[in-house]
Amino acid sequence: MQLKPIAYIKSPYKQKFAIPRQPNLVKEAKGEIVFEKDFSDPNCLRGIEQFSHLWLIFIFHETQDKGWSPTVQPPRLGGKESVGVFATRSTFRPNPIGMSVVENLGWEHAGSSLILKVGGQDLLDRTPILDIKPYIPYADALPDAEAGFAESVPGSEYEIVFGDEAEQHLKKIQAEYPNLKSFITSVLKQDPRPAWRQKDIDDKRYGMTLYDLNIKWQIQENQIHVLSINPES
Ligand code: SAM
Prior knowledge:
- The chain is mostly beta strands.
- The chain has three helices and twelve strands, in the order ββββββββαβααβββ.
- Strands 1-2-7-6-3-8 form a six-stranded antiparallel beta barrel.
- The longest helix has 10 residues, at 180-189.
């Protein structure tokens, strides 16, 4: 069996650290799906505007060489309890395939390139996309479904506070990144630290990359302080 990517996504998430663990947790994330030449025919998207949301089927390309194991310690169980790989949405699977529902923000055909805009994705930049399908509420949204250890929407109680230096940086780049403050806030609300660390108030300075910006932050009591926002060197 041979599968060929139909497209690659352009996403502000440039590294795995700080990507939300499921789609739609950070609605401010916007991505562009850029189709490969063989699939750049706008006819492929005819009618897609009727669907507000789409399924993306993709390859966990960054971790695909790292193999898999029958059990996984999901972050939702604090990263300490084991469950079977098929009872999780782990990236480390026999076939490294991911699936995410994203918002359909329309498409454009400029020159020979076909681009589909999406929102709320949990995909790393340059992730290969294998397929796109419409999200169909009567089949895909099941209000009575149970989800065991993944029942509630994840997120931390931390208040997100921007320090003076970070605020000044935001002002300087506001024209280029108009929703950056809200985007950073939603990403940090998810507390990107490893699951086993999330209960701690550690004083480590963390760095994350969104777009081409390096954002430094630190936990201080019950707040996450954004310390600085600088172009990635
Ligand atoms: N919603 C998808 C699913 O359920 O199949 C992905 C869930 S997976 C737990 C989400 C994580 O995958 C993100 O937090 C990020 O760390 C990781 N990820 C996203 N894109 C990736 C890629 N291309 N390669 C490896 N890991 C990726």
